Amino acid sequence: MPDLSPSPTVIFKICPASLWAQAEADGVFSGAPVDHADGYTHFSTAAQARETAARHFKGAGDLKLVAVAAEPLGAALRWEPSRGGALFPHLYGPLPLTAVLWVKDLPLGPDGAHLFPDMA
Q1: pLDDT tens for residues 49-93?
Q2: What sign does the dihedral 59-93-66-49 (CA atoms) show?
Q3: What is the pLDDT of residues 91-113, one digit of tens each?
Q4: Interacting residues of 31 by C-beta distance below 8 A, sequence separation 6+
Q5: Exposure of 3 by Cβ count < 10 A (0-12 exposed, 13-18 middle, 19+ buried)?
Q6: Does residue 20 have a pLDDT over 80?
Q7: Cβ-count burial of 106 within 10 angstroms (0-12 exposed, 13-18 middle, 19+ buried)?
């Protein structure tokens, strides 16, 4: 079977600040309620993150944008079709905080859209 992974080195998770605070206390991120319902943790690439925020977190404040190194996740990270057939990163298992590169606030702008930091 061919490898269909777009192979970015960094993937992103958008989550409520309260969930991220719990992950830091636990030492691992086990996912949001939607992740538990779907059986995997949803991530986005840098190119997909803005649309993810607009579709699934519209008007939501107090969010965190979490940058994660993809390589340490190994085979638990799978690339699967989602919106319009685009491949999205899905993590089957807990996210070890050792794979987290940085965590930044994802505030709302005056127009209600999220203000993304530099994702490089």
Answers
A1: 999 999 999 999 999 999 999 999 999 999 999 878 889 999 999
A2: negative
A3: 999 999 999 999 999 999 999 99
A4: 40, 41, 94, 95
A5: exposed
A6: yes
A7: buried
Instruction: For residue 42, list its beta bridge partners.
Output: 90
Among 36, 54, 55, 41, which residue's Cα sits nearest to residue 12? 41
By CB neighbour count within 10 A (0-12 exposed, 13-18 middle, 19+ buried), where does 85 fall? exposed
- How far apart are alpha carbons 111 and 76 in whole angstroms? 37
> How far is the C-alpha of 30 from the C-alpha of 94, rounded, in Å?
5
Q: Please give the model's pTM, rounded to 2 decimal places.
A: 0.91
Domain ranges of the chain: 10-105
Task: Please name the helix (run of DSSP H) or strand (run of DSSP E) that holds residue 18, with its range, or none.
Answer: helix 17-26
What is the SS3 assignment for 42?
A: strand
* DSSP, res 6: -
In single-letter form, the type of residue at position 30 comes to S
> Domain 10-105 adopts which CATH fold?
ADP-ribosylation fold (3.20.170)
Residue with tokens 């840098």: 46
